[in-house]
Amino acid sequence: MNDIIDKFNQIPLAQRVILLILTMVALGAAFWFLAYEPMQSDLKSNQSQLQELKHKKQDLARLKEKKARIQAKIASLEQELLIAREKLPESAEIPSLLQRIYNQANTAGLDIRTFEPMEHQTQSYYIEIPVKMQLVGTYDELANFFYYVGRMTRIVNVKNLDIKREKSGINENGNLVVSAQATTFQMNSAPDAGAAKKK
């Protein structure tokens, strides 16, 4: 080591300064190429990955928000579908429905003279299920009955009303005799076949 220092001291000052400068330049260049530039390249790559991850995070946040909105919409639509199926079910459920209407007419105090299911009418997307009925009772009894029918979850339309006054019975003015057609509906599970049958 001392020999190297002695030899270095024997070199003229100008050459020593140049040698030191060249050594420093060589060390600086080595540091630049071996350490600094790779670190800068890694830093740029990491920054690029960080930006990409931030974009992905933002995209995921948007998708999460969109998913929550879609799930809420699906839940709302499922609820609407349940309500729609109650109003327009896929199965006729005629016996229980007719029994409810019949029982309500009895509860209202009406005399049921006719309560007769008629032939189903198949439409494009639904099936009409009509029932011919003749009811006898007071105005209030009939009003209560029709109010109940109108409040049912299942769609029931009453049409072709024919109202006459009966000149007999306990009521001094006579009871009302109502002939009508009550129609409920069922979803047509095979609309194409139903439409073809109608044609």
From TrEMBL:
It comes from the Bacteria. This is Uncharacterized protein. Pfam families: PilO. The lineage of its organism: Bacteria, Deltaproteobacteria, Bradymonadales, Bradymonadaceae, Bradymonas. It comes from Bradymonas sediminis. One of its GO terms (biological process) is type IV pilus-dependent motility.
